[in-house]
Structures are given as C-alpha cells and as structure tokens.
Target: FtsX-like permease family protein
Amino acid sequence: MFKELALMAVDSLRANMFRSLLTMLGIIIGSATLVAVLSLGNALQSQVFERFVDLGTRRIAVLPGDPQARGARDIPGYGLLSIQDYRALEQLVARHPDVFRTIVPEVSLRVQARFGSSAANPTVVGTTKDYQLVQTVPVQYGRFLTDDDDRQAARVAVLGALIAEDLFGKENVKDAIGKTIEVNGQPLQVVGILRQLGGPFSSDQRILTPVSTARLRIAGSQDLPGRGLQMSSILISLQSEQMVARGEALVTATLRATRNVPDGAIDDFRLNLPTQALNVLAGINGAITGFIALVAGISLVVGGIGIMNIMLVAVTERTREIGVRKALGATDSDVLSQFVLEAVAISVAGSLIGVTGAIGLVTLVGAAAGLSVSISWVAVFLALTFACAIGVGFGYYPARRAALLLPIEALRYE
Model:
C-alpha cells in the first residue's frame, strides 16, 4: 500500500513539474544554504585555527600591567617588565622542562627604516635566536639571528616579507641580503628575509634585531631605574596546548613573588594566552554560522508554507478524484496518507536538489579559494530531516482537509 501511495505521489509531481519546482524553491534554497554555510564555515574555522597554531598557540605572552592597578606602587617603573622579571622566568623555565620549552624577550620599537629613496615605518623587535622556537618566523632568504649577534650587539637585521618589499621592491627582495638599511639613522645589514605568512599577528611588517642592538644602538637607554632593561613583552613557549593552564599558574606565581605583589592585590602584569584568542574566534565563527543557519531555517519554513499553499490548491483541484476514490472504498487514512506523502515528496525532492547543488558549490569554492573543504554530512542529515518534517508538518492540514471530504459532496463538486 505504501509503495502505491509513493508512486502516486511521484506521478503527481511529474504531472505538474514546473509548479512543483516553484513550490520546492524555498526548500532548495534553505537546504543548499544550510549545507554550504556549515561546510565552508568549518573549513574557514579550521584554516584560521591552523594559522593561529602557525603563529604560536603554544606560548604565553607576558605583558606590562595596568599602571592604575593596586599593587606594589613603591617599585620604580611599576607595572613595566624588566630584565629582573625575565631572569626570574628564565629560571622557572629551566626548572620545569616538562611544561616549558624556551623563553625569549621582545623589545618593540616603532621606527623609520630607509633604503635609498624608499622608506617605511615598521616595528623593530629586539629578541634572540630562540624566537624561532616561540613564533613562526620561517626564513626565506639568508639566515636568522645568532647568539654571536646578540653578544656583539651586531648591526644586523632580519626583515619581514612586506617590509623587504617596501624597501627593495618585490622583484629585488632576494638581492636584499647583504645590503645596508638605516633604522632611526643607524645602519643595519640585512642578513635574512622572512617568508610571508599574512595576518595581523605575523612578522611580515617587522624588523627583527638582536635585543642588545635594539637596546644600545636603536633605542638608546631602555633601562628602568634599579631594574635593568625594559621589555615590551616576554614570550614563553610551552611543550603543548595541554600545558597552558599549568604554565599560566606557574608564571603568575613567579611574577607575583618576584614583583612583591601583596596578597589580595591584583596582578601588575598581564598574561596573553592562546586559548583566549582561539575562544574568541570560535565564538565569532559560531555566531556567524548560527545566524546564517537560522536564515536557512527560515527559508525552509517559508518553503513549507509554499508547500501548504500548493497542497491546498491541489486538494481543491482534485476534489472529484477524492470523491471517486472514497466511493470506491478508500478510507480517510488512505487519502490522508496520499496527500502527506505528496507533500513530503515535494519537500525531500527539493532538499535533495539543494543539497546536491550545495555540494557542487562548496567543491568549486574550495578549489577556487585553495581551501581544504569537506562536506558537513551533519548539515546534509539536518537538511533532509528538516525537509521531511516540513513536508509532514505543512502537508498535514491540506491532507486532513482532503480526507474529511464527504464522498457525495466531492463527487458533486464542479
């Protein structure tokens, strides 16, 4: 019996192909949007997360604190980071090799860089050779900084990709190795060019120099009274993402003790954790994806209203047919089932068309954008399931109206 009803539903669709296609339009758009958005959203989120991993998610950044915070205000340079803080954290890293990998300083300065008639305003970051273990700074040409560079306060620099292009021109970047640029009037020899990574957190717009060079030759005295070299930040590399919580606790306890922060006072320093940025990104991506999925759901509901409307028209057009069937012995349940199945057939057929179109669209967009895209089969399942529910929900009222028609009245209908 079910097979016969299903075949009748398919025949009904074929008899009015164009009308059925127009009825399916809302379902097609809703299903396609749901599958495409969730599939592409997952791919974009994965790519963003991978980029953050490349730029250093296995690290803790120690930053200066709020100068208005209540803490050890009697310390000169309160709230700022110094070489004393760095040495204390360096000992902490050495004591806990199971948690930490390495530690590097950052002395950041906004400067003017020149080569010939070309000029740029990058950020100079004074650091050490271990910076490569904390941040992703792949060298494309030349070399990176060395311990000897730091010991000698050598006049050397490693340029970010975009700064190198600004100073030397895109076609001459490779030839920049060995050339001398001026940074705040100080000559620095270019020993390396970094590969371009892209994104706001990369080193594309930076010039890396030994920390001693940044301190003595570019910035002049960066020392805090009685506390040594002032630092913009301190980066600590972790063994894995699972060590973020433990690393945070150890760093916080060490700095509070070193900086004599009283019990009950808030920290006079800040920790920037990778999980914070990742959680924010995940929240933004989830909110955008959820909003678009909601729009897709509304489109499906609108499609369901279209199905209800066309099924009411179908009931009116086929009133005499209903009367004949009931006169020949069809029950109310048979008629109800027939029209519900027709509504479900329209809805599912539309959903299948939408899902098929979305798979093709996602594949093309992924290939064009260079994304590694995989179809969200959860979205496909949701689209088809929701389509079935739409068909039953919005097809039931017209079907029940057809089932309750009296045979004699249906046969007399003109």
Observations:
- Residues 2-52+279-412 form one domain.
